[in-house]
Amino acid sequence: MALNRLPEEREYKNAIGMRLARIEPGHFLMGSERGDLDELPVHRVEVTRPFYMGVHQVTNAEYERFDPRHRELRGKLGFSLADDEAVVFVSWHEAAAYCRWLSERDGRPYRLPTEAEWEYACRAGTLSEYSTGDAFPRSRYRNQQHSWYPDPVKTKKEFEVVPLTVGQFEPNAWGLHDMHGNVEEWVLDWYGPYAEGEQSDPVGRADGDFKITRGGSHSTDVRYLRSAERMATLPEDKHWLIGFRVVLGELPAAVPLPPAEPYPYQIGVSQTVPDVTDLPNEAAKADSPYFAKPKVYVKLTPSERGPFYRHNHSPYVAETPNGDLLAAWFTTNEESGREMKLVASRLRHGAEEWDDASLFWDAPDRNMTGGAFWVDEAGKLFHICGLGAAGTWGTLVQVLRTSTDNGVTWSKGTILYPEHGVRTMPIPSLFKTRSGALVLSCDAETGSTGGSTVWISNDEGDSWYDAGGLIRGIHAPVEELSDGRLLAFGRGDEMHGRMAQSISADMGRTWRYEESEFDPIGMGQRAVLRRLKEGPLFLASFADGMEIVDRSGQTRKITGLFAAVSYDDGETWPCKRLVSTDEDGGVWDGGAWTGEFRMDRSHAEPKGYLAMVQGRDGIIHLLSSRIHYAFNLQWVLERSPALTMEVAGK
Predict the structure, then answer these.
(1) Sheet of strand 242-243: strand arrangement
(2) CB distance 415 to 398 below 8 Å
(3) What DSSP line would sit under 588-640, residue for residue?
(4) Is the peptide bond before 41 cis (omega within 30 degrees of 0)?
């Protein structure tokens, strides 16, 4: 029978020998004016009842009394070998299950701390950034630096692995060890924005996508160890940076806050599926060439604190069943930064301009590089993106979620394969083969060379596996050929000065490499490959002096963004056209790594990460890092216009 009363002593030792410190009621200011935006508003919180908190994080020895099988994970990637090291590789669900088990063993109510209880106990009466003051002592550092580990290209194990022994440093004023660093700690709450005003015993949001972790960890920059710092990830996630500690005490009776408000891209979305004859470019999709004036789709004001940052990059795009275009990309200050968030915008059916950008999905302080959209035959929208253990794209897992209402609401995210690491960074090349397999391209390495791989699902996305082969070049788009083979074009790892093409006859287990007729691409560039509804293969990439035959029959060299079409499964690409205006289109800003460039019949965008979708009306929507191009197949087949005599004579 559970005991209703808390112990009375200052420190309580429970039935398994775990030590817990008594935390008395009080109040504090939660959040920070100097931290991330999600730490605002700073608000007063009353903690009305005492509780007990573990004086240190749960150790291997303590956890394995509940789950002896976890012993097999000791030393994984080199971390947490000893009995008295903090347990890691534990999901939120497993941590919660441990608390239930401990409640039964000790006859008292154990649980994870609420986020408010955790920060209250961490601060221990302080108002500074850390309980030690506004600086954290270097003597307590555990590899407090930006870390790529366990990426084999950028790190070495002997320089990265640190012991996670608990209680090695002085406790805070309330007797709690390692509230800053060692390992992140799961707390009870769903992640969401803070509410205004004073609160009493808050328990967070009623629902959400991510469970909060607190305290920061080894192998990350020290600023992420601050008292107010908030991180979160999927409750199923587990890796070498996250552990937990327990609280003894009944859960506060406060009513949870409602789930967070929807983002602007989710508001006012039509659920009507238009007739193809109602689509905005129906008149243009027929036999006449069509090219729309390019549009800027990345419309935001960057700030060092967010939520939008200076570097906006790596888009993916879908046409939803209601005729909208939905684009998503990442916004960040640094591509390997923890501040990265996913951002979205809509070009609503019938609208001339894209909406202003809004947040799309944000696992706070986790890198979320890479992503893809795909819409199945029933209109279900698939979204796959990367989710990092920390702040690099070398520690990703892929996460899948779906929407059946044009991206207004989404299923809970599910992890495709639970191991964080390389070979997992999604590329916007997701499609279904004629045999029904889903194919997703992913980078295989974190560097500028090293290749790509494909992940395969044979059950509509319920389970996935890495096919195991290696495409030549990173960021490789993939498409199915008429005979079932796969074709891919990668960046880097060129062959004889040409872009490499890779062909697989066994669904990605092995690949054969050939040089293509296209110029190689490099930093700031990503190609796209897709089969058009009309039948031919479509490739968009970047030329650096590649020859084309223009409308007048003259052969000339081009530089910049081009489109190419093949009617023989990539054996030849007879039609190539510069993706640009025929007349002077002025100077454009391509954003990201592109910068300013001139658009006219001899100049096109020099860089960009490309994504594309072909609408039901036949229009090809091609996105670079900032600009949306729209044209049809006939426009590509028309070829680039000839240069005028004036231009040719320069």
Answers:
(1) 230-233, 211-214, 184-190, 242-243
(2) yes
(3) EE--TTT-EEE-BTTB----EE-EEEE-TTS-EEEE-SSEEEEE-HHHHHT-P
(4) yes
Amino acid, res. 305: R
Phi, psi of 543, deg, nearest 5: -100, 150
What H or E segment, with its residue span, contains residue 60? helix 60-64
CA distance 110 to 102: 7
Exposure on the CB side of residue 359, measured as CA atoms within 13 A: 18
**Cα(399)–Cα(454) distance, rounded to whole angstroms?**
15
H-helix or E-strand spanning residue 645: helix 645-648
How far apart CA 592 and CA 625 sit, in angstroms, is 6
Tokens coding 13: 């030792």
What whole-number distance in Å separates Cα of residue 529 and Cα of residue 62? Answer: 52
Greatest CA span in the chain, whole angstroms?
A: 94
Q: What is the pLDDT of residue 645?
A: 44
Q: How far apart are CA 500 and CA 560, in angstroms?
A: 18
Q: How far apart are CA 284 and CA 287, in angstroms?
A: 8
Contact 320, 347 (CB under 8 A): no
User: Are 372 and 427 contacting, i.e. CB atoms less than 8 angstroms apart?
Assistant: yes
Cβ–Cβ under 8 Å, residues 611 and 623: yes
Convert 132-143 into a string of H (helix), E (strand) and C (coil): CECCCCHHHCCC
Nearest to 317 by CA among 114, 56, 41, 614: 614
pLDDT score, position 159: 82
State yes or no: pLDDT of 648 exceeds 70: no
Strands 341-347 and 358-361: antiparallel
- 275 against 457, higher pLDDT: 457
56 token code pair: 């240190």
Q: By the 8 A CB rule, do 330 and 307 touch? A: no
pTM of the model as a whole: 0.95
Q: Let me know how many helices (H) and strands (E) the chain has, helices first.
A: 6, 40
Q: At CA 321, angle to CA 317 and CA 327, rounded to 5?
A: 20
Backbone angles phi, psi at 23, to 5 degrees: -110, 115
* Residue-wise pLDDT tens digits, 18-42: 999 999 999 999 999 999 999 999 9
Tell me the pLDDT band of 158, cut-offs 50, 70 and 90: confident
Q: Which residue has the higher pLDDT, 611 or 584?
A: 611
C-alpha triplet 524, 314, 559: angle, nearest 5°: 35
Positive or negative: CA dihedral 35, 38, 40, 42: negative
Contact, 421 vs 394, CB < 8 A?
Answer: yes
426: nearest Cα among 329, 507, 344, 334: 329
SS3 content of the chain, % helix, strand, coil (to 5): 10, 30, 55
Asked if 622 and 629 touch (Cβ cutoff 8 Å), the reply is yes
pLDDT of 261 over the 90 cut? yes
Q: What is the DSSP letter of 389?
A: S
Q: Is 264 helix (H, G, I), strand (E, B) or coil?
A: helix
Token code pair at residue 130: 């850390």
Q: Is 428 helix (H, G, I), strand (E, B) or coil?
A: strand
DSSP annotation of 50? -
Nearest to 252 by CA among 212, 195, 201: 201
